[in-house]
Amino acid sequence: MKTILITGGAGFIGSHVVRLFVEKYPDYKIVNLDKLTYAGNLNNLKDIENKPNYEFVKGDIVDADFIQKLFEERKFDGVIHLAAESHVDRSISNPTEFFLPT
Ligand SMILES: NC(=O)c1ccc[n+]([C@@H]2O[C@H](COP(=O)([O-])OP(=O)(O)OC[C@H]3O[C@@H](n4cnc5c(N)ncnc54)[C@H](O)[C@@H]3O)[C@@H](O)[C@H]2O)c1
Questions:
Q1: Kindly report the CA angle at 26 between 45 and 42, in degrees rounded to 5?
Q2: Three-state SS string across 14-47, please?
Q3: What are phi and psi of 32, to 5 degrees?
Q4: Residue 13 CA: which ligand 1 atom is closest?
Q5: Separation of CA 14 and ligand 1 centre (Å)
Q6: Confidence tier at 12 by pLDDT (50, 70, 90)
Q7: Residues with CB under 6 A from ligand 1
Q8: Is residue 34 part of a domain?
Q9: By three-state DSSP, how is residue 79 classified?
Q10: What is the mean pLDDT of residues 61-73?
Q11: Would you state the pLDDT for residue 94?
Q12: Measuring from atom 5 of ligand 1, which residue has the nearest CA?
């Protein structure tokens, strides 16, 4: 079984993408990684939360240790990256929510 990681899957766009993949590709394991900010809501996915090919993981994409461990453990075949700040004013005032400063 291939495993696909979808980040931000509890958000507006992500929840539709997660549902589409879970229902259309029963042979793929779909892992939804989301921090559950004000924008994330697992009620968006109530209808598929018990599907055998779906798993929710709560976590932060900028937590490097957590992300490295997750990738080492899960060996994802693909990533769809949708964790984001879709309110543009917030993304400008606080961009480090979404990347690791070097
Ligand atoms: N909404 C639209 O109409 C639209 C249209 C085209 C493209 N997009 C793009 O799609 C992407 C998602 O947009 P959206 O409207 O679904 O956003 P959203 O704000 O509804 O969802 C973002 C999700 O990301 C999660 N998240 C935020 N920070 C995180 C972090 N550090 N770690 C893990 N999860 C985190 C939130 O909890 C939330 O569930 C964005 O890149 C956006 O630009 C959106």
A1: 10
A2: HHHHHHHHHHHCCCEEEEEEECCCCCCCHHHHHH
A3: -100, 110
A4: 16
A5: 7
A6: very high
A7: 7-8, 10-14, 34-37, 39-40, 60-62, 82-84, 86, 97
A8: yes
A9: strand
A10: 96
A11: 73
A12: 13
Is residue 49 in some structural domain? yes
Structural element, H or E, at residue 7: strand 2-7
Distance (Å) from CA 40 to ligand 1 centroid: 8
Residue 102 inside a domain? The answer is no
Whole domain around residue 42: which residue ranges? 2-97
Mean pLDDT computed over every residue of the chain:
92
Residue 96, helix vs strand vs coil: helix
pTM: 0.91
Which atom of ligand 1 is nearest the CA belonging to 37?
37
Q: What's residue 27's pLDDT? A: 97
Q: Which of 12-16, 81-85, 88-92 has the lowest mean pLDDT?
A: 88-92
| Ligand 1 mutation target, pool 5, 13, 17, 98, most atoms within 8 A of CB | 13
Question: What is the number of domains present in the chain?
Answer: 1
Confidence (pLDDT) at 90: 72
